[in-house]
User: Fold these one by one.
Assistant:
Number 1:
Amino acid sequence: MSDYSDYHCHCCPRGCAVDRQAALGFCHAGREPEVASICIHPGEEPPLGGARGVCNVFFAHCNLQCCYCQNLDISRGRVDEAKIFYHSLDEVVARIELLLPQSENVLGFVSPTHYADSVPCIVDRLHADGFNPTVVYNSNGYDDIETLRRMEPYVDVYLPDMKYSDSKLAARLSHAEDYPQRAGEALMEMVRQKGSGLLCDEQGQAFRGIIVRHLVLPGEVDNSLGVLDWLADHLPMNLHLSLMAQYYPPEGADLPENLRRTLSAEEYDRVVDRYYQLGFYNGWLQELSSNESCRPDFSQKDSF
Ligand code: SF4
């Protein structure tokens, strides 16, 4: 059984205050962690993935519920039971211990916010069993500061999204008008904990710090420019920033017109130009063609 400190959930900024043993909040997550996939993921940023990849834990459900979610199968509403392969801490820890030695000894928690209280339990169990991976907290950025403070001793590298600068867009696409403010506060807390840089060992493997990701959405270039402006205004310029162009319209999603296509080269170029104009010098610019290659299949145990 997980060690939940607050049964009336305030894990994320939604603050549903439900007893997750008895009722579902906005994210539809119960108390015990439900995990859709635990697999070696080769596609993370090079200082995390190295040559052998990250052992990623893909939690089911999500506290943001973006209409265009790229992992729709495992995140939206009531997730199909057939998509959940691990239902308990024991199963999760056993699978991680099997895969970690095949990775760069990096453990990535993907969409962990609503299961944040499971992170210390899993990491403690791994330590007790002699495993000591670099722990990556890969969240959508809509994180609660108190929750992040509980993560401080357990997380080595934060890998948050910064999705929106436009609160109306955040409301329309992710039901979270306060996303820009709350994600901004969360990023500043992450930087307070780990610094704004990315510390790497002699092999170039990251062991502490932060990488911020931003997915550029088709037809929403102004939102992306606002995100870059906000980052430049509020965080040090040594920040590692990963610009992502991999958006594709997920099958079965109810999407506004502009999200029914992929990103154009002109749109992406405008965002990349702003990245350089502002003076960012650390990070990665994803190839536009990545919208063809970065598609997980969560009907399989190994999803990438
Ligand atoms: S984690 Fe889920 S139940 Fe808890 S506050 Fe967030 S959305 Fe609500």
Number 2:
Amino acid sequence: MLKNKVAVITGASSGIGASLALLLAQQGVTVVIAARRKNKLDFLEARIKKEGGKVVGVKCDVSVREDAEELIHYAVKEQGRIDILVNNAGRGHLGSVEDTSDQVIQSMFEVNVFSLWYTTRAALKYMKEQQNGHIINVASMAGKVGYPYNSAYVAAKHACVGFTHALRQELMETGIHATVVCPAGVLTEWAMVTEGGSMMPLFSESGPVIKRIAEEKKIPLPAIEGVKTPGEIAQQMVDCILHPTPELYTHKGSKEFALLAAEDRAKSEQQQLPIVLGERQVYERVTGKR
Ligand SMILES: NC(=O)c1ccc[n+]([C@@H]2O[C@H](COP(=O)([O-])OP(=O)(O)OC[C@H]3O[C@@H](n4cnc5c(N)ncnc54)[C@H](OP(=O)(O)O)[C@@H]3O)[C@@H](O)[C@H]2O)c1
């Protein structure tokens, strides 16, 4: 079903985007892979070609409107069509609300939100002519639930979820699908390249404190599946392309937790309390506040 389709994947130089490009190319999809690090794209391009796949690498900063629009027009000019657009490029930041500068807020919304309009507006022109297509936006559980020390990213991913829902309304009965993907933890570069410093210490060093607080306060932690590989997420996205759904929750228990947060915010926050307190300790230490 996927053979000879054309997919544009942003943020394909590493992580989920790179894994998805590999899987789709193996299914006969021509993949147009985009990111800022051209050397990483070249590496992936060579690997896909070696496996007999069809691939084009495009250096592109999706937060620059002209770049993002040109990516879509170039893909269609070269490949004749665009069947799948995966808005996957994204980045987080480390910082409490009061430590978040205007520049970081701007940057988070440029890459995680504004870029959605840039690529999607351009792609819709072609998809509407074709009367089919699938737009997949990679949000996060951070688009459904609050998390600390990353507020501009959390707000941006909530915007990504809202954008997708609005887009779906406009696409009803047009033959074009839209899906928002909400992963929990994935083993990629993401937590290491966050603006304002790596978030990695918050996740890797808070474990024992979280466990102790949860035991002391007798609070059951959210029952969300642990960290998954980008390959596992990519496979779920391929399945979603074959059988489109409005939303894709990639981790067991994550949909249930998002539903709990929507239904009873205070109850879901109570389950997050040990995590918040554990991460607070690490945040205050790494930022010299403690
Ligand atoms: N890892 C997780 O735990 C997790 C959980 C939920 C959601 N997500 C989301 O999943 C998506 C993929 O992230 P990942 O986990 O695979 O992390 P990753 O390995 O860091 O991948 C992020 C990708 O986005 C690209 N990117 C960043 N800024 C860009 C820009 N301005 N223009 C173009 N490309 C840009 C990066 O490439 P260049 O640096 O080469 O440009 C990279 O290819 C992101 O939207 C992320 O927010 C991740």
